[in-house]
């Protein structure tokens, strides 16, 4: 399993973590507008202890996604998050490039 983690591929890391019995959530960029820093299909994986690997925004909104993942791990209910300069989250998190992204966060059940 350690070889998978060494690749730093977020999906391989998620697979390894699930194999270790950890709770895991996967965040996936599902839509972008403007100059979003990560393309559709980019992943961030988060475990129940708050460890993470990957990126959905180059560091702009990862903290907010990790925070939401904790709730999703508890409830099991997937959620779509939207971030950008034109919504109410602009004062808490923002995309430095001025784009907008939608991120699906869902729990992985092993």
Question: In summary, what is this structure?
Answer:
By secondary structure, the chain is α+β, with helices and mostly antiparallel strands. The chain is 26% helix and 30% strand. The chain contains 3 helices and 5 strands.
Would you mind describing this structure in some detail?
This is XdhC family protein. Residues 17-84 form the XdhC- CoxI domain. It holds the Pfam family XdhC_CoxI. InterPro entries: MoCofactor_Util/Proc, XdhC_CoxI. The chain has helices spanning 2-6, 10-19, 62-75, and strands at 24-33, 43-47, 52-54, 79-84, 100-108. With 110 residues, it is α+β, with helices and mostly antiparallel strands. The protein has one domain (2-108). Strand 2 (43-47) and strand 3 form a beta hairpin.
Helix proportion of residues, in percent?
25-40%
Largest sheet: 5 strands, antiparallel
Overall tally of structural domains: 1
Give the SSE order as H and E letters. Answer: HHEEEHEE
β-strand number: 5
Q: Mean pLDDT score, rounded? A: 84
Low-confidence runs: 1-7
Number of helices: 3
Determine Rg (CA atoms, Å).
Answer: 14 Å
Strand order of the largest sheet: 3-2-1-5-4
Give the percentage of residues in beta strands.
25-35%
Q: What does the overall shape look like? A: globular
Outline the fold blueprint.
Layout: H1 2-6, H2 10-19, E1 24-33, E2 43-47, E3 52-54, H3 62-75, E4 79-84, E5 100-108
Antiparallel strand pairs: 1-2, 1-5, 2-3, 4-5
Protein name: XdhC family protein
Domain XdhC- CoxI: 17-84
Pfam families: XdhC_CoxI (PF02625)
């Amino acid at each position: 399993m350690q070889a998978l983690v060494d690749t730093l591929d977020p999906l391989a890391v998620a697979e390894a973590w699930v194999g270790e019995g950890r709770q895991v959530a996967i965040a996936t960029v599902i839509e972008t507008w403007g100059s979003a820093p990560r393309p559709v299909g980019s992943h961030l994986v988060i475990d129940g202890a708050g460890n993470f690997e990957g990126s959905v925004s180059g560091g702009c909104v990862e903290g907010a996604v990790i925070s939401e993942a904790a709730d999703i791990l508890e409830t099991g209910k997937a959620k779509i998050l939207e971030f950008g300069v034109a919504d109410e989250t602009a004062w808490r998190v923002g995309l430095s490039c001025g784009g907008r992204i939608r991120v699906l966060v869902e729990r992985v059940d092993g």
